[in-house]
């Protein structure tokens, strides 16, 4: 379930501004989605100009884009730490908690983003909100989909198995799992919900990113608004 909204110019401003954080010798997590793609392309142009960087992609799509654009890549297990991660979000609240998973890449995104010393979200204004209220993506083991769905309902959620576009059947993640989009309404306590979701057996990962984001770069019609934690 990909989210829409915002203009390409807004997304480009956010992505390109965040790409300016990448300095010589940086190992950077490369996020997934349309706004993060602008950052990947900007980093590639800097590489063409001689910048020495290594990128760690968060999805198959990002890996393909980075290869096409000429960004040198390494696997996450080949590095001890990441200096920076730049990634998009489906929604970010006033406390810089985020919902991700519109592209079904949130499991690897969370691993990469959590490993970075600095995690910057790039977004357009349509992705900002006072309180998170979008559906939360929950990646599940295929055999556990029934029991996980029941537990999600016990937590007050309304889970829907994500269906693939232009093919029969459900979406299958890069990890070979299924995805529920779970509506909870306004999420007043993201930290508690995050812990409850993580405790469900068969839940591989969920799209709530709580206490992880260091900064948000919001592209606007005439610039970039930078939001920082605290």
Automatic annotation (TrEMBL):
Any one GO molecular-function label of the UniProt entry: ribose-5-phosphate isomerase activity
GO biological process, one term: D-ribose metabolic process
Domain of life assignment: Archaea
Gene3D superfamilies associated with the record: 3.30.70.260, 3.40.50.1360
A Pfam family reported for this protein in Swiss-Prot or TrEMBL: Rib_5-P_isom_A
Segments passing through the bilayer: none
Keywords, ordered alphabetically: Isomerase
InterPro entries, sorted: NagB/RpiA_transferase-like, Ribose5P_isomerase_typA_subgr, Ribose5P_isomerase_type_A
Pathway annotation from the record: Carbohydrate degradation; pentose phosphate pathway; D-ribose 5-phosphate from D-ribulose 5-phosphate (non-oxidative stage): step 1/1
Catalytic activity: aldehydo-D-ribose 5-phosphate = D-ribulose 5-phosphate
EC number(s) reported in the record: 5.3.1.6
GO cellular component entries: cytosol
Principal EC category: isomerase
Residues binding substrate, per UniProt: 32-35, 87-90, 100-103, 127
Active-site residues annotated for this sequence: 109
Function: Catalyzes the reversible conversion of ribose-5-phosphate to ribulose 5-phosphate.
Family, similarity comment: Belongs to the ribose 5-phosphate isomerase family.
Assembly, per entry: Homotetramer. Homodimer.
UniProt name for this protein: Ribose-5-phosphate isomerase A
Lineage: Archaea, Methanobacteriati, Methanobacteriota, Stenosarchaea group, Halobacteria
